[in-house]
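Objective 1b. Sequence-to-structure analysis of ABC transporter ATP-binding protein.
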Amino acid sequence: MTELRVRDLTAGYRRRTALTGVSAQVPAGGWLAVIGPNGSGKSTLLKAVAGLLPHRGDVLVGGRPLHRAGRRERARLLAYSPQTPQLPPGLTVTDYVLLGRTPHLGLLGREGRGDLAVVEHVVERLDLAGLARRPLAELSGGERQRAVLGRALAQRSGVLLLDEPTTGLDLGHAQALLDLVDELRRELGTTVVTTLHDLTISAQYADRLLLLADGRTAAHGPPADVLTPAVLTEHYDARVVVLTAPDGTPVIAPVRGG
Ligand code: ADP
Ligand code: MG
């Protein structure tokens, strides 16, 4: 079981606290989207949950405190794709995505047929097949972003943390990625936490939204409860109307001022 619980998480950087007392519970197979204006602490939250930042509070995966898990177990429990990844430029797309299988490899460290099948599936679905043998250094920004996500998805961890996964992707590739993530959660019960700057897309894919403002929880709940004009005006200082899509999810449309 891969329920994710975050209890009273406080985290920050050398001189400043960027996240204060944030709690969230995501059931196995659930999808939480973390939203909030620039600098509100979204990336800090994901980094702290991934164990990459000093923090206070608890992170539990399937009831197990993450800090007690060793490296390999942790990588099977949780995959993290950062907003600004550092990439080894010489690797090809396939070799890089294959790195996602590392925590599953046997003692000899050699990948099996199952590992290659997972990689092939991810590469295919993210439209990377034509680029599979190309070095990462020779990819466009959006192609590179898809390779990074491919590695995280190939990890097949219980929990998937994706920081701004659609940044730099055109609409079709963004939807293909989010559909694949959705498929993993439906078929494997993967628990998903994403930050997403697009509020309409957040509402379409996540079952709950967590709105951060100045590092604290400003709102938390189903998309239609969080994405109200009053909340968006208060926290984003934006002019919007909230429409309703045919399936009932909110559509956030900007309105020009002045
Ligand atoms: P978001 O992802 O919501 O845009 P972040 O979590 O990246 O915001 O940042 C939250 C706050 O922490 C911001 O005020 C940002 O300037 C600060 N911050 C982010 N990264 C660092 C860092 N490496 N060192 C110091 N402060 C940082
Ligand atoms: Mg961020």
